[in-house]
Amino acid sequence: MALPFLVGAAGGSAAERDQAFVLTDPDIVESSGLLVADGLVVTTNDSGDSGRVFAVDPATGDTVGTTSWSPAPEDVEALAPAGAGHVWVGDIGDNRRARDSVQVLRVPVGRQDATVVPEAYDLVYPDGAQDAEALLAHPLTGQLLVVTKGVFSGTAYAAPRLLRSDRPNALVEVGRAPGIVTDATFLPGGGGVVMRTYGSAHLAAYPSWQPVASWDLPPQDQGEGVALAGRDLLLSTEGAASQVLRVPLPVAAGVTDLRSPAWTALRWLATARGLPITG
Q: Which pLDDT belongs to residue 3?
């Protein structure tokens, strides 16, 4: 396979920025996880908050629904799709790498306030405690994956497809990732994963986790969240009244093996941007 290079999205560079909306809710001060679901943008605060997620109307930036639960999580860092009207909440942060297990919770979201008792599942790493800020759910199988936040590189782990609530669920290492990954999202169909760091994005083919392309993201104070919104990415950052940016997905080209998983990811990107890919 040839090394890929980047083709800028039509009408701008890969680091082009556009404000999608501002998070107006004064309770959202450390937007970490980000997700687009049912026409809403869902976000959650970083560690230190109570157990809650916010459903935001992207047309106004206003919160239209909050789902709360107790007890408070330890360090929520990420969100992932969990079926119609629900999200997975990733209580997976562990800066001190001291937790025996981490946890994911399945909670409802929508245009209403609710207090719930969520389904909760413990996850255990095979090689000791890890810090992580990215949680993924495969769009076809629903299988959960966690990407750790290593300084120089991270690791992708897969959870069992059928989670058990009565005992810890063993994670299995399935791939390598860039360093300092703060969030990630699948492309539609599950053929590729976009992972973000504080200043860049990385596309990997799935399930090989083979690197396909990387590009710069617009500067943010502390870029934490990424979500796919149609043909673009939404990017969130920590801070009160923070901007959520909309940036176009660039298209990577130069893949010559049309049988490779990388081609699946690139074909989707090319179609989304209206640009051809030639091998």
A: 35
Q: Which residues contact 161 (CB under 8 A, 6 or more apart)?
A: 141, 142, 143
In sequence order, the 6+-apart residues with CB closer than 8 A to the CB of 78 are: 32, 33, 89, 90, 92, 132, 133, 134, 135, 183
Does residue 75 contact residue 94 with C-beta atoms inside 8 Å?
Answer: yes
Q: What is the mean pLDDT of the chain?
A: 88
Q: What is the pTM of this model?
A: 0.87
The 10s digit of each residue's pLDDT in 7-40 is: 444 333 445 569 999 999 999 999 999 999 999 9
| Separation between Cα atoms, residue 265 and residue 212, nearest integer Å | 9
Distances (CA, A) of 251 to 1, 64, 155, 208: 17, 34, 25, 19
Q: Calculate mean pLDDT across residues 198-224.
A: 93
What secondary structure does DSSP assign to 165-231, as a single string?
SSSPEEPEEEEEEESS--EEEEPGGGSEEEEE-SSEEEEEETTT--EEEEEE----SSEEEEEEETT
Given a contact cutoff of 8 angstroms between Cβ atoms, the answer to whether 4 and 254 are in contact is: yes
d(Cα 183, Cα 175) in Å, to the nearest integer? Answer: 16
Per the CB < 8 A criterion, the answer to whether 32 and 238 are in contact is: yes
Cα torsion 118, 229, 156, 80 to 10°: value is: 0
